[in-house]
Automatic annotation (TrEMBL):
InterPro entries: DUF4199. Pfam families: DUF4199 (PF13858). The chain crosses the membrane at residues 7-27, 33-50, 70-91, 111-134. Keywords: Membrane, Transmembrane, Transmembrane helix. This is DUF4199 domain-containing protein. It comes from Aureitalea marina. The lineage of its organism: Bacteria, Pseudomonadati, Bacteroidota, Flavobacteriia, Flavobacteriales.
Amino acid sequence: MKKYYMKYGLGIAGALIAFFLLTKLVGLHQYPILSAFNGLIFGAGIFFALKDYKASSDSFKYQDGFQVGLFVGALATAIFTAFMAIYIHQIDTEFAKAILDSWGLNFNKGALIVILSLFIMGLSTTFVLTLAFMQLLKESWNQRA
C-alpha cells in the first residue's frame, strides 16, 4: 500500500503546488475562491489511487481502501502545507496578510492561521472525498438473483 501513498500523495501535492504557482504567475493567487480547484485536484488523485488499489488487489476491503484514501490525502496535505509555510515565511511575506484582508478578519493577521487553515481544509477534504469515493468503489453485499 505504501506505493499508492507515495505515488498519488506526491502527485496530488505536485499538482497543488503547480496550480498555486500557475495562479501566482497569472496574478490570481490572492483570490481564495480559486482554492476550490484544490478540491478537484484532491478528488481526482484520491479517486485514481482508490481505483488503482482496487484493480491491483485480490480482495478490496473497505478499511484498506479507506486507509489508502486517507493516507494519500494526508501526505499530499502535509507536503502542500509545508510548501505553503515556506512560501509564506520566506518568499512572499505579505501573502498571508493579503489573504486575511480578503477574509475581513479583525484580529492579528499572522501567517499561522493561514497555514493552519490550509492543513485543516486539506484533511477535511480528504476525509469527505474518501468517504464518498469508497461508497462508489466498495464491494456490494447484495446477492445476485
